[in-house]
Design brief:
Blueprint: H1 10-26, H2 29-33, E1 36-45, E2 58-63, H3 64-74, H4 80-83, E3 87-97, E4 106-118, E5 121-135, E6 144-153
Parallel strand pairs: 1-6
Antiparallel strand pairs: 1-2, 3-4, 4-5, 5-6
């Protein structure tokens, strides 16, 4: 018998989002990647309300394989980030469920603020994240895994320097 989202406390979903943020803030990209399903995608649209990551340009659109390659590059001994580490602090709030069907497909939206310090400069990013989660007893310690993550920056259409991190 499948559990519904209503049967799962919102706190456990929030704890999972905090776990993801903690992995990113600590630079533990190996653990962070394990939060994603094998068929996962990560998308950062370039315009508000963008609907198609493949037919339009995006700030970032990656599958898990590309995410793993980027994570390896971040931690490579010759990478610029190795010489100047990226330090971040995520704040997540206003977590809410968008769909209440089964744990096989949970949609969660949250707001975030991210402060990044890199190469002597501090930047602030803010926006909304939409996580499509899947529950699996074989998944992470919380049981959730990310099938798709969409990050909508509030200034998505503004010019950005190279973004050396995930949100």
């Amino acid at each position: 018998m499948r559990k519904t989202v209503a049967e799962v406390e919102l706190r456990s979903i929030e704890a999972f989002l905090y776990e993801e943020a903690d992995y990113l803030d600590s630079g533990n990209l190996d653990a962070w990647i394990k939060l994603y399903t094998e068929d996962a995608t990560y998308w950062m649209p370039v315009s508000e309300g963008q609907e198609d990551p493949l037919g339009e340009i995006s700030i970032l659109y990656e599958n898990r394989t590309l995410m793993q390659i980027r994570a390896l590059n971040f931690n490579h001994r010759l990478a610029p980030s190795f010489e100047t580490p990226v330090r971040t602090s995520h704040i997540i709030g206003n977590v809410r469920l968008l769909e209440d069907e089964s744990l096989a497909d949970i949609t969660v939206r949250s707001n975030f603020h991210l402060v990044m310090f890199f190469q002597g400069t501090q930047e602030v990013f803010a926006g909304r994240a939409t996580h499509h989660l899947r529950y699996s007893a074989e998944g992470t310690r919380s049981g959730f895994q990310i099938r798709h993550k969409r990050v909508d920056l509030i200034d998505c259409a503004a010019p950005h320097k190279s973004i050396p991190i995930y949100f």
